[in-house]
Amino acid sequence: MASGDPADNLPAGYVPPAVWTWDKPSGGTFASINRPISGATHEKALPVGRHPLQLYSLGTPNGVKVTVMLEELLAKGHHAAEYDAWLINIGQGDQFGSGFVAINPNSKIPAMADHSLDPPVALFESCSILFYLAEKFGEFLPTETRARAATINWLMWQAGSAPYLGGGFGHFYAYAPIKIEYAINRFAMEAKRLLHVLDTQLSRSEFIAGDDYTIADIGNFSWYANMVNDAYAAQEFLSVHEYPHVRRWADAIAARPAVQRGRMVNRAMGDPASQVRERHDARDFDVNTEDQVQARGGVRL
Ligand SMILES: N[C@@H](CCC(=O)N[C@@H](CS)C(=O)NCC(=O)O)C(=O)O
Predict the structure, then answer these.
(1) Other beta carbons less than 10 A from residue 301's beta carbon
(2) 10 Å Cβ neighbour count for 262?
(3) What is the number of domains present in the chain?
(4) Residue 239's domain is classified under what CATH number?
(5) pLDDT, tens digit (0-9, with 9 covering 90-100), for 201-249
(6) pLDDT tens across 136-159, in order?
(7) Nearest CA to ligand 1 atom 15
(8) Residue 201: inside a domain
(9) Which domain holds residue 173?
(10) Ligand 1: does its nearest atom lie under 6 Å from the Cβ of 151?
(11) Which of 37, 64, 240, 243 has the highest Cβ tally under 10 A?
């Protein structure tokens, strides 16, 4: 391990103790929900709606992957992909309720239960859910060996790379209580490398795994489209104009009607007209236009 003068550390003079203990908040955005242990903090059963697929999520990039997939399946005519999407407020600690933890011991959205089997199938990790749905419905996952391998490669690449974008770059550039040059440089380097990896791949084919739109695209879209559009207000900092193929691909996917619907589900921020906080029926997309919200005196359904 590189050792420098503790006077140069942050805070100055800090030396890691022999044993780390959780004795003070870490600071920064999300500090209130971070803790070094797993498990439920309170008893709370999850609601169950009338459809076989029950989604417990929030409209973050990881949550959006699943709602886009479900809307794409419905757009293809798979009625069995109808779903109830319940809002999990991670800022208020809903992910630590006993019902949620029973499905996802990792206490992160998205989590899903497939009640078409008895007992229901518990699902967590967004890319695992994409893979499960792709297999269940036989869509967005090629059967030809090479194309299937490429799709899974890029889906797994997404799962491995997102923590560098969000937990690494986003955290230290936007959320940490202080700006640490070393940390920002380390993760800006990695964020740009990842963007270049994807840009190079997309310079060779229309979609990530070849000519077809697959779960590799659905899994990567929410993160990388955000990176070139508005994530962390870092587009100038990261010179995202250097990734024209990512831009072309992100714009094409964003134009898909199912993607536009999927991005609205469980969304709890931004323009109220873009939020369908809970979805239990396709008609839920029709009740939250700005005019309708205003007509109800600002009450969202
Ligand atoms: N690898 C996971 C990451 C899920 C994740 O980080 N979810 C965040 C929101 S985007 C969360 O639930 N955070 C709550 C917490 O950390 O307590 C996945 O892809 O599903």
Answers:
(1) 11
(2) 30
(3) 1
(4) 1.20.1050.10
(5) 999 999 999 999 999 999 999 999 999 999 999 999 999 999 999 999 9
(6) 999 999 999 999 999 999 999 999
(7) 108
(8) yes
(9) 145-260
(10) no
(11) 64
